[in-house]
Amino acid sequence: MDKVNNVKIFAELYDLVLFYKENRDLPTDENFNFFEEVEKYCEKLNLDYETFTKEFHLTKGL
Fold first, then answer.
1. Helices then strands, each counted (H, E), the chain
2. Where in the sequence is the domain holding 10, given as residue range(s)?
């Protein structure tokens, strides 16, 4: 994967983290699975999902 794609994917992952921080206590669309999305982007960037969620304090309360 080229660096430009990596930046775009990281930007999407970053937006998800911001979304979580701002909206974690609010209801979401029933078809939206935050953690599946994070896992998908972590996989694309070759990041360890478990480490990522721990580092950013993402819990399954969303």
1. 3, 0
2. 3-55
